[in-house]
Amino acid sequence: MPVPKQRHTKSKRNRRRSHHALKKQNIIACPNCGQPVLPHRLCGNCGFYKGRQVIDVLAKLEKKQKKEKEKELAEQQEQAQSLDMKEMSKGS
Description:
about 40% helix; single chain; mainly alpha; two-stranded antiparallel ribbon; about 10% strand; 4 strands
């Protein structure tokens, strides 16, 4: 089994490991429902991406679950719109 010929210094080891650090994820709020979403990805909660509905999140749900989800989405849209109005009023 091969063995290192010379010992690596602490600084050499640390410089090699400098790229192993975790980077902070940039999380944004979905403009449609207000849920946290990673940028350049569709919202898993409402199925929207760039203002368009890409997938129908209600398609695979049963009737009872569908009503609950529709109600939840409506509430989230109202909250997102009220937040937008507050931000606009602050800007004036």
